[in-house]
From TrEMBL:
Name the UniProt record assigns to this protein: Myb-like domain-containing protein
Organism: Talaromyces proteolyticus
Source species taxonomy: Eukaryota, Fungi, Dikarya, Ascomycota, Pezizomycotina
């Protein structure tokens, strides 16, 4: 994040969910992320860079993409937890903002 702050696991997962499962642009994504995680200073550019560079090949993104495309639930316990969190966060999102 800006000024050398590190991303938490929950922030990373939330960013992946927002970008893969919502219609939000980067500015909105950063605003929602800051609301969800008070004290976070991520800008639109921070979110875009993190998603496009660091999160291209993380397993959590793969699990969410497979779940979204084919309703595949991972065999791994960690993957099942990621999908469960995805469902919770999608439930908190306005229906018109979702892309599923």
């Amino acid at each position: 994040m800006a000024h050398g702050s590190s991303w938490t696991k929950d922030q990373v997962l939330f960013l992946i969910v927002l970008k893969l499962c919502s219609k939000h642009r980067w500015k909105q994504t950063a605003e929602i992320l800051r609301q969800k995680f008070p004290g976070t200073t991520a800008t639109a550019k921070d979110c875009e860079s993190k998603f496009n560079k660091d999160l291209k090949k993380v397993v959590e993104r793969d699990w969410i993409e497979k779940f979204k495309a084919d309703a595949v639930i991972p065999q791994e316990e960690a993957g099942r937890r990621v999908i469960a969190q995805l469902v919770v966060w999608l439930g908190e999102m306005n229906a018109e903002d979702r892309v599923v």
